[in-house]
Design a protein that fits this description.
alpha+beta; six-stranded antiparallel beta sheet; five-stranded antiparallel beta sheet
Length: about 650
C-alpha cells in the first residue's frame, strides 16, 4: 500500500471520529494481505500518529467544552444576587464540570481562625456536612493556609497532611478517597476552599485542577459581589429603618406639639378640667380619669373611663360618703365624680416621686403637682398602641392640668375675696349701702334682679377647705356667690326652688369629705334687703335638721312640713297641700268626704265605732274609707310624727276655710 493510500485511510478514520480500536484495522488488513515488514512498519507509524492526532483533537474538544461551561458558569454566577444561591451554584457546577462523586465548599471564619463546611453536593453524611477544618489540618486546612491547590488520590494514607480524628472521621464516614482542593482567593486573602472528591482512588488530571481553579477564581469574585450586594441591602435596610424612625419621630413630635397647642388653647380660652380630659382622651384613644390630691374623681372622659373608675374604686376605699355608693358600685349609671380611687394612690405617689408617668397593667398614672404640692393625677386606661410618645403627651397634659388648677385657684381666691365681702354685706343686718350692692354684684357676674336662694352648710373643720373649694366652683358655674359667714359655708344661687338647690349643693360639696355635710336652704328672695331673711331661714332649717337627727341631709323649709311653720318660714297653704293633697284631690274628683272622715276619726280618738256614730255610717264604711286613705297617703299615715302633721294640717285648713 502506498503512503498516500495509508494516509487517506487514517484521515477517514479521523474525519468520522472512529473509535481507537478501529485504527488497528488497516494494519491487520495489510498483514493478512502479506505486506512486507517495511510496509507494516509504516502502517504502525501512521496509526500511532493518527491516534496522537485523535487524542489531541479530543483534548481540544474537551477543553473547548470546559471553557464554554466555565464561561456559562461565570455568567450564571454574575447573574446571581443571593449569597446562598451563589454558593450552591458554584458547588453544583463544579460537580458537573469535574464529574466527581462529591463537591463541597468551605468558607473562612475569621472569628475562630478556621474554615467551616458551607455547602455540599452529593454528600450523604451529616457529620461530614458540619465538619470544621483548623488552619493547616487536613487537605482543606492546608489549602486555606498556603493558598495553593492540593490533590491526593488516597487521602486516608497520604502522610503529607496533618490528620485529625475529627476530619478523618468525617471523611471516612463519607467514604472519600481522592480529594482535590483549590483556594478561593480574593486579592491576597483566602476566603474559602472549593473541593472535588471521589469515593475511589482516582487521581485528578492536571486539566481538572486547572478547571477547578478557574471556577474557584470566578466563584471568589461572585461570592465577594454577593457579599457586597448583601451588605448594600443591609445598609439600605438600615437606612430605610432609620428613615422610618426619623419619620415616625417627626410625626410623633408634630402630634405631641399639636396636642400641647390644643391643651394650651383650652386653658387660655378658660376651658375646664373636663375639656382638657376630653382632649387628652381623644388624642390618646383611651379612657381618662382625673382625680384630685385625695384620689377623688373630678372628671372622666373616654369610653373606658367609667370602667376604670369602677375597677379602682373596688380596689380602694370606696366612695367618699354613703351618698356616693351608687357611683362607686356602678359609675356607668351616672356621674363618677366624687368617687375615691383608693386603688390608685400608690401609683400616684410613685409618679409624683419619679416625676414621670408610671404604668401598671393597662393603667398609666401621671401625677399632677406644682413644686412639691400634690394636686391630683391623670389616670389613663391605655389602648393597645400606647407608646413612649403617648406617655410624653400624658405627662405634658398633667403639667397643663397643674397650670390650669393653679390659675383657677388664683382666680377662685380672688373671686372668693371679692364675693365673700359682697356676700357679707348682702347678709348683714341691717343691710347697708343697698344702692351699690347691685353694681358690685354685676362686676362679679351676679344678677341680683333675679330671684336667689340662700344655702347654709355645716362641714367638719377638716373638711371645710375642700367644701369651700367645691362651693366656689359651683357658685362660679351657676352665676352665684360663695363664702364663709358666721362660721358656715354660705352660697347665694339664682333660682326659685330651694329644695332642689339644697340637694344640688349637697351633691356638689359632699364628694371626698370625711364627715357628713348638712345643708339648709331659704328663699327664694328677689330683693337685696331680703337676703338676710333668707339666710336666717336657711340657718333655722339647718338647725332643724340637726335637731331631728337628720345631719348629713339637705332640705328647704317646704321639706320639713309643719316644722316650717314652727320655724317661722313656711306657708300654711304649702303645709296643708303637702300633708293632705291626695285626699283633697280625691274628694274633689269623686265627691267623697275622706277629709271629714279622717278629721272625725282623730276627733273620736281613733275609735271606729264612735267615728261611725258621729258620721251616721256603718263601721265597715269607716274602715273602707280609712283603707282608701292609707292607699292615698301611705301606710304610715297613722304613725305619731305623720299623724301629728296631718292633724295640724286639718286644723290649719279649718282655720283657713273660716
Amino acid at each position: 500500500m502506498s503512503a498516500l493510500a495509508t494516509t487517506s485511510v487514517f484521515l477517514d478514520l479521523l474525519a468520522r471520529d472512529a473509535a481507537a480500536i478501529e485504527y488497528d484495522g488497516p494494519v491487520v488488513a495489510a498483514r493478512v494481505a502479506g505486506a512486507s515488514a517495511e510496509e507494516l512498519a509504516d502502517l504502525e507509524t501512521a496509526k500511532r500518529v493518527a491516534l496522537e492526532v485523535r487524542a489531541t483533537l479530543a483534548r481540544s474538544r474537551r477543553r473547548e467544552a470546559e471553557l464554554v461551561a466555565l464561561f456559562e458558569t461565570a455568567g450564571d454566577l454574575a447573574a446571581l444576587r443571593d449569597l446562598d444561591a451563589v454558593l450552591k451554584a458554584i458547588v453544583s457546577r463544579a460537580h458537573t464540570l469535574i464529574g466527581a462523586d462529591v463537591t463541597y465548599l468551605t468558607l473562612d471564619d475569621p472569628d475562630q481562625g478556621d474554615t467551616y463546611m458551607r455547602v455540599t453536593h452529593g454528600s450523604v453524611s451529616a457529620r461530614f456536612q458540619s465538619v470544621r477544618l483548623p488552619m493547616g489540618a487536613g487537605l482543606g486546612g492546608l489549602v486555606a493556609q498556603t493558598a495553593k491547590p492540593y490533590v491526593t488520590s488516597d487521602y486516608p494514607h497520604d502522610e503529607r497532611f496533618r490528620h485529625t480524628s475529627e476530619i478523618d472521621g468525617a471523611v471516612g464516614e463519607e467514604g472519600l478517597i481522592a480529594i482535590l482542593g483549590v483556594p478561593l482567593i480574593l486579592g491576597s486573602r483566602v476566603i474559602g476552599v472549593l473541593f472535588a472528591a471521589n469515593r475511589t482512588a482516582r487521581p485528578f488530571a492536571r486539566h481538572e485542577i486547572t478547571l477547578l481553579s478557574s471556577l474557584a477564581a470566578h466563584a471568589a469574585v461572585a461570592i465577594d459581589n454577593a457579599r457586597l450586594l448583601q451588605a448594600t441591602r443591609d445598609a439600605l435596610g438600615e437606612l430605610r429603618a432609620a428613615n422610618e424612625l426619623v419619620r415616625a419621630h417627626s410625626e410623633s413630635v408634630e402630634r405631641a406639639a399639636a396636642v400641647h397647642d390644643k391643651l394650651a388653647e383650652l386653658v387660655l380660652r378658660g376651658g375646664d378640667v373636663e375639656g382638657i380630659a376630653a382632649a387628652v382622651a381623644e388624642a390618646l384613644g383611651g379612657g381618662l380619669v382625673v382625680v384630685d390630691a385625695d384620689a377623688v374623681v373630678t372628671a372622666v372622659a373616654g369610653p373606658e373611663a367609667l370602667g376604670c373608675v369602677a375597677d379602682l374604686a373596688g380596689r380602694g376605699i370606696g366612695p367618699a360618703s354613703g351618698a356616693a355608693t351608687g357611683a362607686a358600685s356602678g359609675p356607668a349609671a351616672g356621674s363618677a365624680t366624687g368617687v375615691v380611687l383608693g386603688g390608685a394612690t400608690e401609683l400616684i405617689t410613685l409618679s409624683a416621686a419619679t416625676g414621670h408617668a408610671v404604668r401598671s397593667g393597662d393603667l398609666v398614672v401621671a401625677a399632677v403637682a406644682a413644686a412639691a404640692e400634690p394636686l391630683g393625677a391623670l389616670i389613663l386606661r391605655t389602648p393597645e398602641s400606647f407608646g413612649d410618645v403617648d406617655q410624653r403627651i400624658l405627662e405634658r397634659a398633667a403639667l397643663v392640668v397643674a397650670l390650669h388648677l393653679l390659675m383657677r385657684r388664683s382666680e377662685a381666691e380672688a373671686a372668693e375675696r371679692l364675693g365673700g365681702d359682697l356676700l357679707d354685706d348682702l347678709l348683714a343686718v341691717p343691710v347697708r349701702h343697698t344702692s351699690t350692692l347691685a353694681e358690685r354684684a354685676r362686676r362679679v357676674g351676679v344678677d341680683l334682679d333675679r330671684p336667689h336662694i340662700v344655702i347654709a352648710a355645716d362641714a367638719a373643720p377638716a373638711d371645710r377647705p375642700r367644701a369651700h373649694f367645691a362651693a366656689g366652683r359651683l357658685a362660679g358655674a351657676e352665676g352665684g356667690l360663695a363664702g364663709s359667714h358666721e362660721g358656715r359655708i354660705v352660697l347665694l344661687l339664682p333660682g326659685d326652688d330651694p329644695s332642689a338647690a339644697a340637694q344640688r349643693v349637697h351633691t356638689a360639696l359632699r364628694g371626698g369629705l370625711a364627715q357628713p355635710l348638712t345643708v339648709g336652704a331659704g328663699g327664694p328672695k328677689a330683693e337685696v334687703a331680703a337676703y338676710a331673711e333668707a339666710h336666717a331661714e336657711a340657718v333655722r332649717c339647718l338647725s332643724a335638721l340637726h335637731a331631728l337627727g337628720r345631719a348629713g341631709g339637705a332640705a328647704a323649709p317646704s321639706d320639713l312640713g309643719f316644722l316650717a311653720l314652727v320655724l317661722g318660714g313656711g306657708d300654711p297653704g304649702d303645709v296643708v297641700r303637702r300633708a293632705l293633697g291626695p285626699l283633697i284631690d280625691y274628694d274633689a274628683k269623686r265627691g267623697t268626704d275622706l277629709l271629714g272622715t279622717v278629721e272625725q276619726y282623730f276627733a273620736a280618738g281613733r275609735s271606729l265605732g264612735r267615728t261611725g256614730e258621729a258620721l251616721h255610717i256603718h263601721v265597715n264604711t269607716v274602715t273602707q274609707r280609712l283603707e282608701r286613705t292609707a292607699r292615698l297617703l301611705g301606710a304610715d299615715w297613722q304613725d305619731p310624727g305623720r299623724s301629728l302633721e296631718i292633724q295640724l294640717a286639718l286644723q290649719i285648713r279649718r282655720v283657713m276655710g273660716a
